[in-house]
């Protein structure tokens, strides 16, 4: 379990996060959802260890990670732009992080990740030869081979559309289930959060507006912000929401 206790952060005089308390169970997919500037990316970076919080504690399986350096936390992130090396092949990108961790992943495990993400036909291609969805899968494979304790994804679907986006959604769900991997996703898109996550944390101006399942948020929004933010933005994405939550919300 990942537990956040009273996480606060401000830059100069601007409060970015205020007393964030959250518990995420092992294997859950949780989306951090909010408008631009709401504090969701800052919270992700605090969990990763990239950003230092002003107050609070982070615990993982009862171990206090508050002052543990990013490299020692065992969490890994897939950035929005994938951060792949264009001069390397897909395969070389996947194994790049293993150079300093020899023996941490067997050849059989490496092939399992490659097969799971259906990357075998693309291993010898340079990054510029790959589609957006293929790049995303390479980035996921590179992260998975490091055997992260928690997988962090920063806007993983923002550069994708149509069938490719739906395919990556299913991949992320499958990864969490197959490897019992706690997955935390930053997104500004309510439709993505509702159709991808087990639970959603809605952040508004550095505060938690609601934390719950997609069904709870759709059927029982806790305040007007949640109701307006979710329902207004979903008006242009009716079909997926109709299928999941019924006609009155489509």
UniProtKB/TrEMBL annotation:
InterPro entries: AAA+_ATPase, ABC_SmlMolc_Importer, ABC_transporter-like_ATP-bd, ABC_transporter-like_CS, P-loop_NTPase. Residues 2-230 form the ABC transporter domain. Its EC number is 7.6.2.9. Transmembrane segments: none annotated. It comes from the Bacteria. SMART domains: AAA. One of its GO terms (molecular function) is ABC-type quaternary ammonium compound transporting activity. Pfam families: ABC_tran. It catalyses: a quaternary ammonium(out) + ATP + H2O = a quaternary ammonium(in) + ADP + phosphate + H(+). The keyword Chloroplast does not apply. Keywords: ATP-binding, Nucleotide-binding, Transport. The complex is composed of two ATP-binding proteins (OpuCA), two transmembrane proteins (OpuCB and OpuCD) and a solute-binding protein (OpuCC). This is Carnitine transport ATP-binding protein OpuCA. It comes from Cytobacillus horneckiae.
């Amino acid at each position: 379990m990942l537990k956040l206790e009273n996480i606060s952060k401000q830059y100069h005089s601007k409060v970015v996060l205020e007393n964030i308390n959250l518990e995420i169970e092992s294997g859950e997919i949780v989306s951090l959802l909010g408008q631009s500037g709401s504090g969701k990316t800052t919270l992700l970076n605090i969990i990763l260890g990239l950003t230092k919080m002003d107050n609070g504690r982070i615990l993982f399986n009862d171990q206090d990670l508050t002052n543990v350096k990013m490299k020692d936390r065992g969490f890994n992130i897939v950035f929005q732009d994938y951060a792949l090396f264009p001069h390397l092949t897909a395969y070389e990108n996947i194994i790049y992080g293993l150079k300093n961790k020899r023996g941490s992943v067997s050849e059989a495990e490496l092939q399992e990740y490659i097969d799971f993400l259906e990357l075998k036909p693309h291993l010898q291609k340079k990054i510029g030869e790959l589609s957006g969805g293929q790049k995303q899968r390479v980035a996921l494979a590179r992260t998975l081979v490091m055997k992260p304790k928690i997988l962090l994804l920063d806007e993983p679907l923002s550069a994708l559309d149509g069938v490719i986006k739906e395919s990556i959604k299913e991949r992320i769900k499958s990864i969490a289930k197959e490897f019992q991997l706690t997955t935390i996703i930053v997104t500004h898109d309510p439709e993505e959060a509702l159709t991808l996550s087990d639970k959603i944390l809605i952040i508004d101006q550095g505060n938690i507006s609601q934390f719950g399942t997609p069904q709870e948020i759709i059927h029982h929004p806790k305040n007007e912000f949640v109701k307006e933010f979710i329902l207004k933005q979903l008006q242009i994405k009716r079909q997926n929401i109709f299928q999941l939550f019924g006609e009155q919300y489509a």
